[in-house]
Amino acid sequence: MIRIKCPFCGERDHSEFTYGGDASIVYPALDATAEEWHEAVFMRENIRGMQTETWHHVNGCRMWLIVQRDTMTHEIRSVRPAHEGLAGVLEDDR
Amino acid sequence: MSARRLPSGGRIDRSQVLRFTWDDRVMSGHPGDSLASALMANGEQVLGRSFKYHRPRGVMSAGVEESGAMVTVGEGARRDPNVKAPMQELFNGLTATGQNAWPNVRFDFGEVNDMLGRFLVAGFYYKTFMGIPPFEWGKGTGAWMWYEKFIRKAAGMGSASREADPDQYEQGHDFCDLLVVGSGPAGMSSALAAAEAGLDVMLVEQDWELGGSFLSQTGSESKNRCADMVASLNNAGVRTMLRTTAFGLYDYGVAGLLERVTDHLQSPDPYQPRQRFWTVRAKQTILASGALERHIAFGNNDRPGVMNAAAGRAYVNRYGVLPGERVIVATNNDSAYHSAIDLASAGAEVTLLDARSTLPGELSERIGEAGVSLRTNTVPLKTKGRLSVNGLELAVISVNGWRARGAESCDAVLVSGGWSPVVNLMSHRGVKPKWDAENACFLAPSRHETIQMAGSAAGYWRAADCELSGIAAGSVAASALGKKAKSLVLPPIGGWDLAIKPVYEVKVPGKKLKCLVDPQHDVTAEDIRLAHREGFVSAEHLKRYTTLGMATDGGKMGNVIGLALMAEALGREIPEVGTTTFRPPYTPVSIGALRGRSVDEHFRPLRRTPMHDWNLSNGATMTMAGLWHRPWYFARQSETISEAYVRETETTRKTVGLCDVTSLGKIAVQGPDATEFLNRIYTNPFAKLPIGKARYGIMLRDDGFVMDDGTTWRLSETEYFMTTTTAHAGKVMVWLEELLQTRWQDLKVHVTSVSEQWAGCAVAGPESRKVLATCVEDASVMDNDAFPFMGVVETKLKGGIPCRIARISFSGELAYETYVPSDYAVAMMDLLWPQAEQSGGCLYGLEALGAMRIEKGHVTGAELDGRVTIEDAGLGKMASPKKSFIGSALRNRPDMTREDRPKLVGIFPKDRSQTFNAGAILCSVEQVSGLGEGWITGVTHSPVMGHWIGIGFISGGHEAWAERTAIAADPVRKGNTEVEIVSPHMYDPSGEKMYG
């Protein structure tokens, strides 16, 4: 069982979270072409190693998080709030 | 002659006598006995029958690797099959029975299989019965499945009770700095070292006593040492758990433990669970899980009376049971010398066969003193006897292998073929054990992640070295957690006086022997060579073809020998053939423990609306809708469900009906950018929705398919009240949070789930306005002009109850949804219901709600299943061509705009007296087969139409089927029905009633 250090709640079992997806995807503007949207929605790297991904602390603080996780070993390198404003506030607090 | 209880000695309490039954015969034992030791003390030899050949089996070990004495414990609903007798603690009143035998294990007709054994090789059943009959017709799976029933009956183990499990199970969670698995010399010393350095330590032991290998040693020195360590553990605050197996290791130091709480008790207290399933999160883990002794494949090496050498020692020293009077100990390493000495000291006549040609110096002197006669270069070839061993044919070393050399009489044979460290838990972490040729065993790395190996599990054979390695591991764990601890220099791995001589199988030319490799699944050495001849040469194929290592011991007994034999057949070394990957669980875990308390009504959470009790006291019959408990129908007198919902539908359409709609998802969308946000997620424009109006909206996913629908009410410049379907409430909330937190971080919007905060009641039907007007404080708010279709009013019900009302309709009638804070739910119903009743109205449930929405062609979760586009649902006009929204780019892909996509339609039976089922496949008359042209999602009896109607999807929609008959194909339930395809708007298509 993976344990994730939620920046708001502390270290918790992964069963409190749901996996979102690849956090490196930049979604295009709503009026972008179908090709651009196709690229963002369907084309994924199947990474073996460190991957940046989103997780939702759905049974906790309900914050979306950006997690760097090794897909082979499940080692987690970093966790931060997906919302840059919140991440900045946490950073300032430190 | 058989085993007998010695007059003194052992760790049993002879002052107390325990009575138990074995195959309906009453026997006695003592506290501290295992079922196996007690049965041996009572002279029982045949305790089981083997899986395939029904060969007689006795006690083969003293631990979890037991493959002979597998019995059924308990009776009735508490019958527990395949219990390993050495692991079952004896208690007063225990009942045990033999299994896989008829009429009993001592005399079993199934033994005929053993005589046919030369035919019943690996793959026999498949090869034979899949080829019958020997011509094409009738061959194949069907015939095989018929034979299989009989084959399964003949082979097997114990059978589980068919009754429901009467016991309770619990799940627990715990944390610690250090988890130590195993309480032998290494486990106890590591726990002690870590605890003394200041760690919070948990020590788990599958046995009912701490001590591990200490328990089967003799002499006061080791007994005192063990007792001292146990006392120190308690003083140091180590948390010890007995009868607890660490069955699996997972990521991040998470371990799964199974604690057997009452399996050793005659009459447990009623509050006690039978077992506890623990999830433990440990910062550091030490595996001091010991090593298991291997046997050797020689002729009839599974006959009762043959067991591993360490087991013989355990029975003498721990249980005071002498396995035989004339014992042959056969070994290829030093460890069995101790067994030989202890058995001889206990009074047995012992002969020691050592496969090696030289002798370990000091040990060989000691066996001389103990009166053990010794033969070098000698190995066992074949046991003699029938239901128990009465002699052993021997073999001696020759130029090319072994040759037969005489026989000895004996009544017990103790075998040591070397040791396999228990690396199973480390293997669970994806670590491949490596072959250590010098010690002839697989070893795991001493350290991986936060896990360390210690003691004989790490390949240390001497108790003193095990203790040292335990202290070292405990110190490493302590320093890893920032505590001061001394570092130690470790002795080299191994530690025997004289190296082991690898012996896996004994065979001599010209002699056919049945040498069991995996006794639990009856896999022989010959089966492995057959697998090789037939081309199954990889370790993984070998396992699956012969079923080696796939029995309940998970390969503890047979895997290494199997690999060695395959290596020999291939002419390679063991590490080139493969390694063995162990997977959880280490020992079987009952399904009951896995489920814990999540059973029956506790299987999943139950959601009740705040008017639940009100609904019940007003005659509701409830049904499950997702997690929600919702009113299904309100039967009057002796009404059936069909009569009730048809009446509710008719009444609602004629006068008024009230329905609890609290389960709809409700989300508060607030903030200066709320309008912009909604405009992006809904397909239809929200930018100009005035305050005090609601709008029906559809949201798509990124890929252009429909995600959900619902109404959103504008309460102020910056505040909206969004409703979602019951089914997708959670999903929509997650989606909105994701968009705001990841994609559109600049939008100043906050979303809050308020589903629990607001209770809702639909007031539907021509009289609905009148009913509500009498219930609000200011009746003028309900005027048709002041409160038009899709209008929203925030007002007060009589008595000052705050409420929000929207004029929206799911039923197709003039209708309102009224929401009040949840605490006022009952007050609202007490206001509305008397007024509705006076107008001749009714309460209606989910069944009538469904009937009315089907008549109206409104979609729900059943239609919005994630494969439907907005056009498929007949709502294409709701997609704005003027703005971009989530899904707008990808919803126009060619395949999503094809004309022949299945589209929402209404369905009538051609013969109006007929009916059909939801889930039926819609086919053309020409081809009633394959995937069909569409499907039916909902069916109801429509009182308005006077016949059954349905809603569903069909290729091209109703225009394409205007003049054609379709078939609702339902071959496994009610057969096929001819149907007409019509517009989904079956009731009041112009919407006069709703707007009026």
Largest sheet properties of chain A: 4 strands, antiparallel
How helix-rich are the residues of chain B, as a percent range? 10-25%
* Second rung of CATH, namely the architecture of chain A: 2-Layer Sandwich
- Count of folded domains of chain B: 7
Low-confidence stretches of chain B: none
- CATH H-level superfamily title of the largest domain in chain B: FAD/NAD(P)-binding domain
SSE topology string of chain A: EEEHEEEH
Fraction in beta strands of chain B: 25-35%
**Count of DSSP E strands of chain A?**
6
SS class of chain A: alpha+beta
Helical element count of chain A?
2
CATH topology of chain A: Folate-binding fold
- State the end-to-end distance of chain A: 29 Å
* Most strands sheet of chain B: 8 strands, mixed
Look at the structure and give the mean pLDDT of chain B. Answer: 94
Strand content of chain A: 35-45%
Biggest interface found: A-B, 33 and 24 residues
Give the radius of gyration of chain B: 38 Å
User: Oligomer, anyone?
Assistant: heterodimer
Question: Could you characterize what this model shows?
Answer:
The complex is a heterodimer of chains A (94) and B (996). With 94 residues, chain A is of the alpha+beta class. Chain A has helices at 34-42, 84-93, and strands spanning 3-6, 10-13, 18-22, 50-56, 64-70, 76-81. Chain A has a single domain (3-93), classed as Folate-binding fold, CATH 3.30.2270. Chain A contains two helices and six strands. Chain B has seven domains: 1-162, 2Fe-2S iron-sulphur cluster binding domain, sarcosine oxidase, alpha subunit, N-terminal domain (Ubiquitin-like (UB roll)), CATH 3.10.20; 167-292 and 420-483, FAD/NAD(P)-binding domain (3-Layer(bba) Sandwich); 295-417 and 499-513, FAD/NAD(P)-binding domain, CATH 3.50.50.60; 515-583, Arc Repressor Mutant, subunit A (Orthogonal Bundle), CATH 1.10.10; 608-662 and 757-851, Gyrase A, domain 2 (2-Layer Sandwich); 665-753, Aminomethyltransferase beta-barrel domains (Alpha-Beta Plaits, 2-Layer Sandwich), CATH 3.30.70; 892-995, Elongation Factor Tu (Ef-tu), domain 3 (Beta Barrel). In chain B, helix 5 packs parallel to helix 6 (220-235), helix 8 (336-345) packs parallel to helix 9 (361-369) and helix 21 (768-775) packs across helix 22 (825-838). At the A-B interface, helix 1 of A face helix 20 of B.
